[in-house]
Amino acid sequence: MNALAGRVLAGCVARCCGLPQAAGRHTFGNRQDYAVGDFPSSVAIGDLDSDDLPDIAVTNRWDHDVTVLCGQSAGGLGERQDYSVGNVPGPIVVGHSKPPYKKWSFHKMKTKIGGPNFIRLPNGSLWGSGRLYGPDNKRTPVLARMTRTSYDPVLALPSGGDNSYPGLVWNPDDNLLWMSYYSSHEGKTSIYLAKIRFDR
Prior knowledge:
By secondary structure, this protein is mainly beta. The chain folds into 2 domains: 3-84, no CATH class; 91-196, no CATH class. Helix content is 7%, strand content 48%. It contains 1 helix and 14 strands. The chain has one helix at 3-16, and strands at residues 21-22, 25-26, 40-46, 55-60, 65-69, 81-84, 91-97, 104-120, 126-133, 139-146, 151-156, 163-171, 176-183, 190-196. A 5-stranded antiparallel sheet has the order 7-8-9-10-11, with no helix packed on it. A 4-stranded antiparallel sheet has the order 3-4-5-6, covered by helices on one side.
């Protein structure tokens, strides 16, 4: 847990665990650290086990789970419990509508992808890109041929570690699709530009 998240969590623990008030203000005892998962991204306080004591739930983005710390009647928090919630990304849902865009039809794909983007090329074909989640949660930015009911990756871009969030622009001067994305596979996070030619 990083230092900032630790301080935020410590503050929430102090607030939710009924520390005494003085002159209308909360007072804080000695700092207590509680371990949670990798990349804690949000904290919620509530009575999760129906014992009328406040508990803490922390979402751990990279571990794909939620850490629950239950409040104890003697004060403080109990033993950490982790609950898996699956991968961060969900299946792609492609929507289609016609003007005035009030009625939509949706199709759910089987592919799980994060940070998606798409573009329609001058020839009418639809192409999508994003971070494809593979075995062992490996993340790879891909370019995929799309229809209203399909998403078929045809090109994987050089990458590793944290990556994706593509930008897509058709350059009519050279008839190439320019795709920008970030990746950390060369020792630091960098932005890359791929110029992609399509076979006719």
